[in-house]
């Protein structure tokens, strides 16, 4: 399988290229499953569209496998406004070509992601006041993390600022995780050292789906930070991964007190 489009522009290291091919192959097989699902009603125009139109690929950014830092994976709930703007429904290329260039310093989601990543790669030793802006980190290509959503369907509705749990749960039902657990397979490819989740368990995602991806028996509570974020040891196959569950990355509140400080303190 060849890496097509602008992937070659961004992915130049051998390990990144190899893993990029592997994850795109997974999404190709995943898409075939989604192609057999019923059309989905788009609420904004009242029309039905093929489920594959909503299906978005995610994964990792350049440097994740080839860089010198721990492999950090951020896991959110759903994609927003991706299928409307991305040529190949590829979240990673969309971000590299658009989101990272479109004033990320003012984007609440990206600020939190970059700040938490910075906290990890600096060992939580840098005070929040000294943290560079996302645009500075992007200029230095300091974005070697991974990003995936539990739902690969893009919520492109005008009210997409609110999570569409019916669409999220529809995706998890369409994927049929009990038959083939694609999400676990994606985790296996990404092989993270640290996972940061966006308050998945307090959402309206059906618990039976979360249990298929993150079985309760594989978690061991380690500690909490001011009741804002929790650190767990998560056993994934034969590996112990640090998992920090925070507020949703777009939650109202302080970047420092809800995200940067908790991760800085829990990661050491």
Short description:
Helix content is 36%, strand content 18%. The chain is α/β, with parallel strands linked by helices.
Write structural notes for this entry.
The protein is of the alpha/beta class and 268 residues long. It contains ten helices and eleven strands. A hairpin with a 4-residue loop joins strand 1 and strand 2. 40% of the residues are buried.
Poorly predicted ranges: none
In angstroms, what is the radius of gyration? 18 Å
> What's the total helix number?
10
Helix-and-strand structural type: alpha/beta
The pLDDT mean sits at 92
List keywords for this structure.
268 residues, alpha/beta, seven-stranded mixed sheet, 10 helices, 11 strands, globular
List the helices and strands and how they pair.
Blueprint: H1 7-10, H2 14-34, E1 40-42, E2 47-49, H3 51-54, E3 59-60, E4 72-76, E5 79-80, H4 91-97, H5 108-121, H6 134-139, E6 146-149, E7 154-155, H7 165-175, H8 182-190, E8 194-198, H9 207-213, E9 219-225, E10 229-236, E11 239-246, H10 255-267
Helix pairs in contact: 2-8, 5-10
């Amino acid at each position: 399988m060849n890496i097509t489009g602008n992937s070659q522009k961004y992915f130049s290291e051998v390990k990144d290229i190899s893993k990029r091919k592997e994850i795109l192959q997974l999404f190709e097989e995943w898409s075939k499953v989604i192609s057999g699902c019923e059309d989905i009603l788009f609420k904004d125009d009242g029309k039905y569209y093929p489920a594959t139109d909503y299906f978005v690929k995610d994964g990792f950014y350049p440097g994740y496998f080839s860089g010198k830092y721990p492999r950090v994976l951020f896991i959110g709930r759903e994609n927003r406004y991706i299928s409307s703007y991305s040529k190949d429904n590829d979240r990673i290329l969309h971000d590299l070509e658009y989101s990272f260039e479109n004033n990320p310093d003012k984007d609440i989601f990206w600020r939190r992601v970059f700040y938490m990543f910075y906290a990890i790669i600096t060992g939580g030793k840098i005070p929040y006041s000294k943290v560079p802006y996302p645009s500075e980190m992007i200029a230095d290509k300091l974005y070697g993390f991974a990003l995936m959503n539990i739902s690969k369907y893009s919520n492109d509705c005008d009210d997409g600022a609110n999570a569409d749990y019916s669409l999220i749960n529809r995706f998890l039902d369409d994927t049929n995780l009990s038959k083939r657990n694609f999400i676990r397979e994606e985790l296996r490819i990404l092989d993270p050292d640290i996972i940061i989740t966006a308050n998945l368990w307090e959402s309206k995602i059906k618990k039976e789906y979360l249990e298929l991806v993150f079985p309760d028996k594989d978690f061991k509570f380690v500690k909490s930070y001011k009741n804002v974020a929790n650190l767990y040891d998560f056993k994934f196959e034969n590996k112990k991964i640090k998992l920090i569950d925070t507020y949703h990355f777009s939650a109202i509140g302080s970047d420092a007190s809800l995200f940067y400080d908790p991760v800085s303190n829990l990661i050491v």
